[in-house]
Design goal:
This protein is of the alpha+beta class. The chain has five helices and eight strands, in the order βαββαβββαββαα. The protein has a six-stranded antiparallel β-sheet. A two-stranded antiparallel sheet has the order 7-8. It starts with a strand and ends with a helix.
Length: 236
Amino acid sequence: MLKKSFFINTTPEFFGNWLSKHTLMLSFRPFPTEKGRFCLQRSRPADVIGNPGRVSIDGVYSYTNPENSDLEIALPSKEVIWFNLIPLSSDRTEIEAIIDVNVPSIETYFRELLEEIGKRWFESGLVEQPGEHTKEKISVGGISNSFGVAIGTGATVNVVELHAHDNSDGKESGTTQPEVDNDSIQNRESALETARRALAILEQQAAGYTSLTIPAHLKIELEDKRKEVAELEADL
């Protein structure tokens, strides 16, 4: 289990909406394991509305049927990654991010996701903030001190290197440029195709039950996947 706690200046609802948009294409990314693969699903704002203290990223674990290599067996996996959301005030939330699967590829994604959260909310401390700088003392003439004051024939210059503040384009230092959405139509179509394949597997599993005997988790996964396919189709 990996766990990370941090604080952000927003509400649980806003964070839930951001996470849902950020994971829109997540089902397109494969997460291989030793004997199969995981498919992680898009997080949904409805999770926060129904339970403002928690939002999760669910998944489906698939592996080849040992009796028929042309078929896959899919097992729903609830809360592969989840976030406990603790509102501290109207615009301040404590978050506990947790992953509870021992899959290296998903652990890598978990760290990447925390980094993206850190870029969105710098106050979380998950990434180095723009504007933090390092100082380099340069000695001129052989005599220097740490204050940049000339001494005799020498002088010290404190050089401040501002990270991610490039003034070469003439724009004001520290200005954050808006992120550009590089998702192509082709990627969205591929994500839709993957979601449809996952839906077909879930429907194949559900076909073995009646409306009274179908397991609750399978029914929920089926409903969520149908909603995901519908949303992806609407986005296109």
